[in-house]
């Protein structure tokens, strides 16, 4: 039997090879097609990208036709270069430069010579196209924006880079690809699938008909439409309210995690990044390092959360049973936490949980935090447990949204302080600023909006997401998965009552809206910049978080207004108007609306420019940060 084994293996191997050769040469003609590729011309049919709608069916992004002139250098023969240049309004130097670039890419493969001709230019060239062998027009679809807002949500489309072409064989030179926003995140769904026709050429390079009677031709498949969770009218209104201001607004539907509005200011008209001037306009936006219109503050900007963080401080204190609803502390306009160390407070008197919230008493929450950290003998154990509770609200971590960017923020752990104090000696009073959101904690607007959604739901949230529906597709199951916080449901009711009293008789009483119970929290965050080795104190950031109605909440919101002084001066009115617009469909607080629409903080921003340009000896990146542990900050793209 052993003598037969080797011959059997040889025979079996030979049969396998013969059958494979037969399949490739007789049955499967794919390799034959590739071999004959020199005599075959591929013509692509580009599909329309999927349309984009808001949650109410309003069309936000459509398409418009565009035409590129493509070139195959090896096929250029005896053309009148002067006539060609005059026809397209280009110089001979430009012509030579583009041909040289095309040759570097490939002599035999097509690449873009001139992109995005308008209808007049296309008609003029098409009439004489036959005279310019080696050149042809390629129809594509560009975006046609139906609105002038939401640029940070949509992103834009542009030509695929050489790196992207090498990375993904689907793309060829001149193909369009989504960048930023949903255009990037949902590129494969929006782009569709290119169709291709194989045309046979004779020895004179003339097209003589379809190859194999079109056997290998494919039809283009249009991209799938997206329905966003965004409410277009709310997005537009928020953009108008934030005119002449800088900051971010994020609104979420608590019951689903759907993002109702995602606003970053300053912004730009998305149509600026369409057409022949796209590159020029993008360059201007990119190099605006002061206003940063391309920087999505709602997703990326990391700010100290300020007083809204007291909500979490109180909930953790209840959960750890270091306080109850009736626990009281006496405030003498501040809190002494060490020799000569005093945390100021605008409040005075006896504070319990309820009035501690609606009067935003620093003393009350400093005491709660101190008791929380002092609960265990080892502060490292306490801080790590506190950190776990905080992170259960989605703070200090990437939320996993369906946007291609996001910032982690910062929630410190014991390791943070062990690095900062390698010799030990730190305790609850050392890090007491965490109690009021002014310590090492950093948050993004979307994280605070999500935190309020968790409070509105009394202990859980859904991962925030911006796409509501994809035709023929199912959403990722992570967007319908409930995330539970570490806080028991019973502890949310007293905190929610305190948040309601912020409007009833507290720091936002002047913002009250008739027949609508809003639960909110004002906030102010210290604001400094460092330029050329020197720190400058600027006007504080204005912060406000809220949800409404108190029963069966429909919207949770976070508003950050940079250099906005204090919570109820700018952020509070904007949040209130956004909530009323969404819940009631109309605005009754016209006084607030007029003040917000006509108000401006440009004078404050000019002060920053003066500091950067007049006082700095060399360019320094304009970065606004808290006094946090810098090496724990992260950002993902």
UniProtKB/TrEMBL annotation:
GO terms for biological process: cell wall organization; peptidoglycan biosynthetic process; proteolysis; regulation of cell shape. Pfam families: PBP_dimer, Transpeptidase. It is a single-pass membrane protein. The lineage of its organism: Bacteria, Pseudomonadati, Bacteroidota, Flavobacteriia, Flavobacteriales. GO terms for molecular function: penicillin binding; peptidoglycan L,D-transpeptidase activity; serine-type D-Ala-D-Ala carboxypeptidase activity. It is found in: Cell membrane; Membrane. NCBIfam families: pbp2_mrdA. Residues 47-209 form the Penicillin-binding protein dimerisation domain. One of its GO terms (cellular component) is plasma membrane. SUPFAM superfamilies: beta-lactamase/transpeptidase-like, Penicillin binding protein dimerisation domain. It comes from Flavobacterium haoranii. The keyword Zinc does not apply. InterPro entries: Beta-lactam/transpept, Beta-lactam/transpept-like, PBP_dimer, PBP_dimer_sf, PCN-bd_Tpept, Penicillin-binding_protein_2. Keywords: Carboxypeptidase, Cell inner membrane, Cell membrane, Cell shape, Cell wall biogenesis/degradation, Hydrolase, Membrane, Peptidoglycan synthesis, Protease, Transmembrane, Transmembrane helix. Residues 247-575 form the Penicillin-binding protein transpeptidase domain. This is Penicillin-binding protein 2. It comes from the Bacteria.
